[in-house]
Amino acid sequence: MNSNDFASLAAVQLPLSSRLLASACCPDKDLLVLVTRLGGHDRMSLWKMQGSKTWEIDVSTSSERIVGVAWSPDGQSIAVAHDPPSITLHSIQDGRSERVIHIPTSDVPIPQLTDIWWFHQEKPEKSPIPDIFRRNNIITGSAHSVLRTLPLLDQLRDESKQLTATDLFAFQGSQTTARRVASVPDVIELWPTLHPDPVSASINVPDTNRTAENGIMDEVDDANLDSILAVADRSGRLLCFLDGTYPLGSLKLGDSNTTIASLFKNPKSPVLLAHPIHDGVFTDLLPTHVSLSLLQGRKVRDFAKLSTTARELCWYALRVVEEMRAAWIGSDTNTGARDLGPKWIAAYETKQQDDYHVRPSGILDLTMLLVTDRPSEALGDYLGSGPQMSERGMQKWDSAVTEALVKLRDYSEKRLVPACQRLHLVLGEVRGWASLPTLYSSFEIPSEVVDQCLIMLKQAILLSSWLAAAARREHNRFREFMTWLRYETVLLGPSSETPNSTPLRHDILEVNQYLMSGLEKSVIDQWFMGPVPTFVPQDLGIPGYNLTVRAALQKAREYLDHRDPSETPITVPPDGFNDKPFESIDRNLFALIGAFASSCREVFDRPSAAATRAATISASSGSVIEQTTAASQRDNQTDLLIRDRITVDTLREDGYYVQYLVMHAPSASTSELRSFVNFVRQRYGHNSSHVEVAVHECCLRRGEEEDVVGVDVLALEFFDDETIVIVYRTDEGEAYIGTLSYRELEYTDFQPEGYVRFSRESLIESVSQGLIAGQLKSGYLPIRQSRGLKGCRSGAVSLAVNGRVGRRVACVLDSKGTTLETFDLEGDEGEEGDTTLDEDR
């Protein structure tokens, strides 16, 4: 046996015991993932194949164990399944959590997750005719088509980019905490969404791809487009996510104690082939076909894009109204502008009571000063020597209130109203979907909730415009008040100026109005306090009839034909609404946007699972009693080593597949120590199956001599369409990694009888019986290339491989989890990259 056929990349001594998952190798990069147990929680680390560690993170505060990992088709993210059940996406650049994928709720508690896969979708060939109009698969006249023509909304402050003192002043490597990320409310976090796309939602974002050097934008990588992330749990349920993020619902593939041994997706169509394991004992030999027929069209993606756009706009509106509320009411860290006036009055009344022992009457004294220009003794003292009455204090007060009112005015008119209008456009298209139940019956869109959301959007648009008018009016009155206050301060100052020599620049009526309804308690408070508004347009004097174009024209004709010349037309004041007739109307815009967000998410929750509700599941059938009987014949079922690989049968029409199985079982008896590796080739379609087997004893021929060496198979993994990577140990205790070609084996037709055709485990039993009866012949393992391992002289091993062209590597981890060896299965023997890591590295 030649033991130096592969080039060793590294032999790493790990500081802590680690786990190597079968999917640990990155498909398109020389990287692998290791899982380390520390303090009762799993940690994930990324390593280069040459033996150096790139990063190591705690994946989640609530995660106790990592169940499995899957690489995104574009190679930029790692999907991690956790226990307790959760799914997260991590960047391969630094390991930071990019997204927590919400697991859809069900009537029963979510059991433990068992495995995770991420399947890519082959893209059709692009048309040679270029898309000169750059439609990007957008239907003309749709909501997204209209949004593309609208100006982009101003971007908001990105709180996730805020730096801490440690980031600014600490030495490199001394940071102990991650960058603070803006908290996202649950209603947004649990929203069914594709990858965030603010530009499609008509929201401006900083262009991170455009640089000063190139001046152009990089081409977008669409490898994740139409990909499916699948996660299996212990109850036989399969969760699916479009593009790795958008929930498609769940599929029930078995009973309560069912797991998925393997899962395959047709690369050109949304068809899944699953092999369930029942009761942890027997695995279906024939697959369960799952056809997600809705994914073949564009309906699911179009609705997912609407949901994503609605989420971006709703999250934008929530942040806008939150910033408005923080500017006026205040937040946990900042004082609101509305508190400055009451604090000023409270300070003066305290001075009245403590220094002059009079009954507090701040507003009365200010009104008397405004009318007579003669301040009381306490007010004169306060205006002349109060800490807030310095030029610096007044300027700070003026700036804070002015900035807050200007923000309320501009954010209402330029951000919140346009965002609500765009949301109305999106939900209008969703209502169009709901009005066509024959075409979109699988989506089950709640039309009543859609109508309620549209009403709430109209209320929000009306309240936002009303708030802008109120803020503009409040700002004018506050400006007059500050002018008057400076005027009185000048008169009370130590100067020779007299009232006749100081020009009067303020409006007395506006100042009085601000004293009555702005200084202590502002009308603007109503937009951020109180219950959720429930008014109807009729409460504001707006006609209640249907304002469609046809109805509006009909009403106009009726009015012109029967109008009484003595009637006075209804006019709207130029400054907007007058507050007096509408004092009883609730205006809490902050609560309204929050309630709208919850209702809007409800619109998209259930329709997101339309693809799985309309799925067709064709499960394999078999006799449970016979399967259980067959499984009971072997006492060491847990020692079975089974791997499979499924490809589309290119020799047959669509719907036919070729499955290769490699199954290793220890000897069934103590007297017979022989063990075998069974290679199975199975071709099957929807209603047919053809099985071929090739049996090889766990022995090797040594050199040209007819010396046979028995080996113990430790690990097996399919490498590519031709090769299997195998790790074995000889009778002398030496461990090797080798390859063999499973396609070049001589397969024999094998048609087992009865229950055998339904279970992989029973197939192993049947093959063993065929060997004993002489119906099948066996050979020795045809190892083509091999190399000795430095460790793995005892115990089990873990194996992970990557057979992609240009990345053909294999990784082996010993039973202690401390010795990792990596190999280049295409490179020639050269200098070994041995690396030893200590705890500080």
From TrEMBL:
Which part of the chain is the Anaphase-promoting complex subunit 4 long domain?
290-489
**Highest taxon of the lineage:** Eukaryota
Domain (Anaphase-promoting complex subunit 4-like WD40): residue spans on this chain: 26-98
What the entry lists under Pfam families is as follows: ANAPC4, ANAPC4_WD40
Name the UniProt key words of this record, in alphabetical order.
Answer: Cell cycle, Cell division, Mitosis, Ubl conjugation pathway
InterPro entries assigned to the protein according to its UniProt record, in alphabetical order: APC4, Apc4-like_WD40_dom, APC4_long_dom, WD40/YVTN_repeat-like_dom_sf
UniProt name for this protein: Anaphase-promoting complex subunit 4
Native source species? Lentinula lateritia
